[in-house]
């Protein structure tokens, strides 16, 4: 729960859809990661988490699980207008297909570190690009979520918001995005996940600090 942003996204969408499922936590810390993912590989060709087994079908990618969540609640998690829906899917796909390269060393795992480092200039520029985009979406669709009502696009971006906000991202220039991040971070499902994730031992990633030295990190 403090290591897989993909699992969190799928979980948020399924819970928001009211889909009932049993959870099985998979420990993806090394070295047990390899054996545990090999076990997942027996039911899913991707051998990754998250994976949803409906009893009839194994759905093994977060975006497919999220689309399934939207389907089981009759499309309530995407806009009704076809163009807005395609736009929301673009925002979700952007995250899924590569947005994690923005501030990639500020990983989801690092959101749970007791000491945070400051953003580098490149990371600060990445945050600006991202928050300007959120601000524009919130202006276009009038908030309070990216496409008006809460949608898969918001759930897809929750872990990114968490990792950047927990590193003290300054949102003063983007008031709509600031209020959106506040709303998201206080969403009952996000609070439920984070409450448990915050109790777990942090998963240290060596590339968090330049040179990999830990824990002598400067406070952010
Ligand atoms: N595209 C996949 C990515 C899932 C993914 O990368 N999960 C990681 C854990 S956060 C994993 O299980 N990786 C397997 C591995 O490293 O072999 C999805 O969206 O579900």
Automatic annotation (TrEMBL):
Keywords noted in UniProt: Transferase
PANTHER family in alphabetical order: MALEYLACETOACETATE ISOMERASE
UniProt GO molecular function: glutathione transferase activity; maleylacetoacetate isomerase activity
Xref: Gene3D superfamilies: 1.20.1050.10, Glutaredoxin
One GO term of the biological process aspect: glutathione metabolic process
Signal sequence, start to end: none
Species in which this protein is naturally found: Luteimonas salinisoli
Domain GST C-terminal positions: 81-203
Top-level taxon of origin: Bacteria
Protein name: Glutathione S-transferase family protein
One Pfam family per UniProt: GST_N_2
Domain spans labelled GST N-terminal: 1-77
């Amino acid at each position: 729960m403090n290591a897989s942003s993909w699992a969190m996204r799928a979980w948020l969408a399924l819970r928001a859809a009211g889909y009932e499922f049993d959870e099985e936590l998979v420990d993806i810390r090394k070295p047990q990661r390899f054996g545990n993912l090999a076990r997942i590989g027996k039911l899913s060709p991707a051998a990754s988490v998250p994976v949803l087994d409906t009893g009839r079908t194994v759905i093994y990618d977060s975006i497919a699980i999220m689309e399934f969540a939207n389907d089981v609640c009759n499309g309530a998690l995407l806009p009704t207008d076809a163009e807005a829906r395609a736009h929301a899917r673009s925002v979700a796909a952007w995250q899924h297909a590569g947005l994690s390269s923005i501030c990639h060393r500020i990983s989801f795992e690092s959101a749970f570190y007791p000491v945070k480092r400051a953003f580098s200039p490149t990371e600060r520029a990445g945050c600006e690009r991202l928050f300007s985009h959120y601000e524009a979406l919130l202006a276009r669709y009038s908030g309070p979520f990216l496409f008006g009502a809460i949608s898969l696009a918001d759930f897809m971006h929750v872990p990114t918001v968490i990792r950047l906000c927990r590193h003290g991202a300054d949102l003063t220039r983007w008031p709509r995005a600031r209020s959106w991040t506040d709303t998201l971070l206080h969403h009952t499902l996000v609070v439920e996940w984070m409450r448990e994730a915050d109790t777990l031992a942090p998963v240290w990633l060596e590339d968090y600090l330049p040179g990999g030295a830990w824990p002598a990190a400067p406070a952010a």
